């Protein structure tokens, strides 16, 4: 099925106004987010790169943010759309707080809200160009889910977006288990992030790891992973690839 | 800057297969629990089966976001029905509602392929099979989704439904006993998951009979 942006407004399904404001492709993008459940809560990792096409334009983009008291949101895709989503969520949390009834939105509710926002925007042919990961803990209940830009959503014990789906999830499927300690969880996430760093050209070696438990959440200071580039195949990459020139 | 995506599409196919078999006093509805996109498996444990009423269950494959929207819409419509009529909707009524709901979005369809199964007003098993825009048919058994091309001919061969051209009209329900039908469903999914990469991980089977609704699971290939 193909939907092209029609140049003639009279033939356009949506009218000229909405037509000109649709996101047809992203500008500044973030790459993979990887997250998993562990013994006491959720761990999430994302690097801090913001790519402008293939140019590494920004290097200190925080792609994981706390939402309310119990949730943590990670985003890949268009950075400006992510910031717009954060605005929606701020308003959502604020208006919920104004009831002053002691209730608060948990990760499940926030994830469901995001699901509806993403799907609603795709129905208007004006998507928010993101893959979102939502993790949290409320009343001892761990929650980890994801939404794509067209509204596809699910929960799992571990999730990843973009390249992470190809490179991180196979590792997670092999090594993840219910009783991961905090240290082992971080080790597993770093293993995934290292593979992504080596193999995903838009990944950078400056990342944050976020933790959320019943007690609260912390997002780490940016740090780098140890890498090893001295493999012989890296020393002379053109050796064995004989060209005519 | 070069365009990175060739063209944005509001649709995706998340795969999966659904089967329903109706008997004289039961109905079996089954679907696998794999959710995929392209060559990626997104999750191995996503239920495609949705209970719409006490005696009516829908299994759907296709585009997950549309399926979820469709399920929520039908749940809301069923709630209104209960408030207005003080009873559960019958399976044939739900079948018509599902058709109308799909056709309402004829020019921006729900990309979902459904089978609806349950018991009719006489307590007899019934199955309704759909396309994405709402044309539907009452049958004795059916299959939809990515593995339907492998499953449907096998069911045809095993169950030999009477021709709809016969006069007087023959009953479409299968002659199998409940346990035999469950075994058949397990076999078709085990077979489909051998060749269809979008079918696998786990099989969820829902059985509806006079006693109520029962759920069973069986492991399928995970590769």
Automatic annotation (TrEMBL), chain A:
Q: Which residues form a coiled coil?
A: none
The transmembrane segments are none
Q: Which GO terms describe its cellular component?
A: cytoplasm; nucleus; proteasome core complex, beta-subunit complex
Q: Which domain of life is it from?
A: Eukaryota
Q: Which GO terms describe its biological process?
A: proteolysis involved in protein catabolic process
Question: Cross-referenced InterPro entries, in alphabetical order?
Answer: Ntn_hydrolases_N, Proteasome_alpha, Proteasome_beta4, Proteasome_bsu_CS, Proteasome_sua/b, Proteasome_suB-type
One Pfam family recorded for the sequence = Proteasome
Does the keyword field hold Nucleus? yes
As for subcellular location, the record says: Cytoplasm; Nucleus
Q: What's in the keyword line of the UniProt record?
A: Cytoplasm, Nucleus, Proteasome
Q: Which SUPFAM superfamilies match?
A: N-terminal nucleophile aminohydrolases (Ntn hydrolases) (SSF56235)
By sequence similarity, the record places it as follows: Belongs to the peptidase T1B family.
Role according to the record = Non-catalytic component of the proteasome.
Instruction: Give the record's subunit note.
Output: Component of the 20S core complex of the 26S proteasome. The 26S proteasome is composed of a core protease (CP), known as the 20S proteasome, capped at one or both ends by the 19S regulatory particle (RP/PA700). The 20S proteasome core is composed of 28 subunits that are arranged in four stacked rings, resulting in a barrel-shaped structure. The two end rings are each formed by seven alpha subunits, and the two central rings are each formed by seven beta subunits. The catalytic chamber with the active sites is on the inside of the barrel.
The molecule here is called Proteasome subunit beta
TrEMBL record, chain B:
Matches recorded under Gene3D superfamilies: Glutamine Phosphoribosylpyrophosphate, subunit 1, domain 1
InterPro entries according to UniProt: Ntn_hydrolases_N, Proteasome_bsu_CS, Proteasome_sua/b, Proteasome_suB-type
What the entry lists under PANTHER family is as follows:
METALLOPROTEASE TLDD, PROTEASOME SUBUNIT BETA TYPE-1
Q: Which family does it belong to?
A: Belongs to the peptidase T1B family.
An example Gene Ontology biological process = proteolysis involved in protein catabolic process
Alphabetical keyword list: Cytoplasm, Nucleus, Proteasome
What is the documented function of this protein? Component of the proteasome, a multicatalytic proteinase complex which is characterized by its ability to cleave peptides with Arg, Phe, Tyr, Leu, and Glu adjacent to the leaving group at neutral or slightly basic pH. The proteasome has an ATP-dependent proteolytic activity.
- Subunit structure as annotated in this protein's UniProt entry: Component of the 20S core complex of the 26S proteasome. The 26S proteasome is composed of a core protease (CP), known as the 20S proteasome, capped at one or both ends by the 19S regulatory particle (RP/PA700). The 20S proteasome core is composed of 28 subunits that are arranged in four stacked rings, resulting in a barrel-shaped structure. The two end rings are each formed by seven alpha subunits, and the two central rings are each formed by seven beta subunits. The catalytic chamber with the active sites is on the inside of the barrel. Component of the proteasome complex.
Source organism phylogeny:
Eukaryota, Viridiplantae, Streptophyta, Embryophyta, Tracheophyta
Q: What is this protein called?
A: Proteasome subunit beta
* One GO cellular component term: proteasome core complex
Bilayer-spanning residue ranges: none
Q: Name one Pfam family in it.
A: Proteasome
Where does this polypeptide localize?
Cytoplasm; Nucleus
